[in-house]
From TrEMBL:
Catalyzes the reversible formation of acyl-phosphate (acyl-PO(4)) from acyl-[acyl-carrier-protein] (acyl-ACP). This enzyme utilizes acyl-ACP as fatty acyl donor, but not acyl-CoA. Gene3D superfamilies: Isopropylmalate Dehydrogenase. Pathway: Lipid metabolism; phospholipid metabolism. Pfam families: FA_synthesis. This is Phosphate acyltransferase. The keyword Acyltransferase applies. Homodimer. Probably interacts with PlsY. GO terms for biological process: fatty acid biosynthetic process; phospholipid biosynthetic process. GO terms for cellular component: cytoplasm. It comes from Cohnella thailandensis. GO terms for molecular function: phosphate:acyl-[acyl carrier protein] acyltransferase activity.
Length: 329
């Protein structure tokens, strides 16, 4: 298995991608990790004796966070992100991971890797944390801001198959994000999508509200990229805010500090449960190769989890399963 990693993408690049790859290389010696980017910058974080299953692929340009996506992909053909995408397209890598410019990565998926036959709009897929530690697969979380009902149907089909193939959940429950659970709720897009999903070959349970997502009232959450991205950022922000407030309160007096010391293991488990780094790695479903988006602020730990996600998807034949099930539909 070969996974190409955009070593120059992300807020903490190249240190975080390289250090994450080092940890992953030691954890999974059967996986070849291809660090794509400027060799000297990568080598400065590799150390003197890196594992034999890590190698460097030269790419001397970088797509920046503020670059216009389509223009950057077309003009920076030797950027680390584009080179990694081309490796997937040409069969030199089984998957690619990047924490860089989201719009540019979507463009690489469409223009370089190529869209899967039968899929109109690929969707960015991620796992949202839940209180039981299992998580909810949600898509789209930012690839397409203005999705049509037909696109939401394709997201439901792909998300259901992803949950089955990668996570081993038989007949995953598919829910449609809405402002209420009643079938007649929502805007015209959601009403039309409800009708399409009701007749699809999936275990559709109807509309679900955002307040119930963290209790895993469904296994796959379908939404457009605009609503999905807002939901994702709201969950991340709420978690950080709550833990910040708790930290302030639990260090405000000696009694609070004593209570905090006693409850430290409990708080640690809760923080781990809600930590986005454990769920890092969002596949762009609907393209003909495995393209995985990492969180822009991914550190080494988050990078390692993204590699874990890519390994699982490749090992379970996700892309070929999607092509067999959905191609031409």
């Amino acid at each position: 298995m070969r996974i190409a990693i955009d070593a120059m993408g992300g807020d903490l690049a190249p240190q975080a991608p390289v250090e994450g790859a080092l940890a992953a290389a030691r954890e999974w010696p059967d996986t070849q990790l291809l660090l794509v980017g400027k060799p000297e910058a990568i080598k400065s974080h590799l150390g003197t004796n890196p594992p034999s299953n890590i190698s460097i692929v030269e790419a001397m340009d970088t797509i920046e966070a503020d670059d216009e996506p389509v223009r950057a992909v077309r003009r920076k053909a030797n950027s680390s992100m584009v080179v990694a995408g081309r490796m997937v397209k040409e069969g030199q890598a089984d998957a690619m991971i990047s924490a860089g410019n989201t719009g540019a990565l979507m463009t690489v998926g469409l223009l370089v890797v190529g869209r899967m036959e039968g899929i109109e709009r690929p969707g960015l897929t991620a796992i949202l944390p839940t209180v039981d530690g299992v998580g909810v697969v949600a898509l789209d979380l930012g690839a397409n801001m203005d999705a049509k009902p037909e696109h939401l149907l394709q997201y439901a089909l792909m998300g259901s198959r992803y949950r089955e193939k990668v996570h081993g959940i038989a007949r995953p429950r598919v829910g449609l994000l809405n402002v209420g659970t009643e079938a007649a709720k929502g805007n015209e897009q959601s009403k039309a999508a409800f009708e399409l999903l009701s007749g699809a070959p999936i275990n559709f349970i109807g509309n679900v509200e955002a307040r119930d997502v963290l209790t895993r009232n469904c296994d796959v959450l379908v939404c457009d990229g605009f609503s999905g991205n807002i939901l994702l950022k709201a969950i991340e922000g709420a978690a950080e805010t709550v833990f910040g407030v708790l930290k302030t309160e639990l260090t405000s007096s000696w009694k609070s500090k004593l209570a905090a010391a006693i409850l430290r293991p409990n708080f640690g488990r809760v923080r781990k449960m809600m930590d986005y780094k454990r769920y890092n790695g969002a596949p762009l479903l609907g393209v003909s190769g495995l393209v995985v988006k990492g969180h822009g602020s991914s550190n080494a730990e988050a990078t390692m989890h993204a590699i874990r996600q890519a390994r699982t998807a490749v090992g379970n034949g996700l892309i070929s399963a999607l092509a067999d099930d959905l191609g031409g539909k």
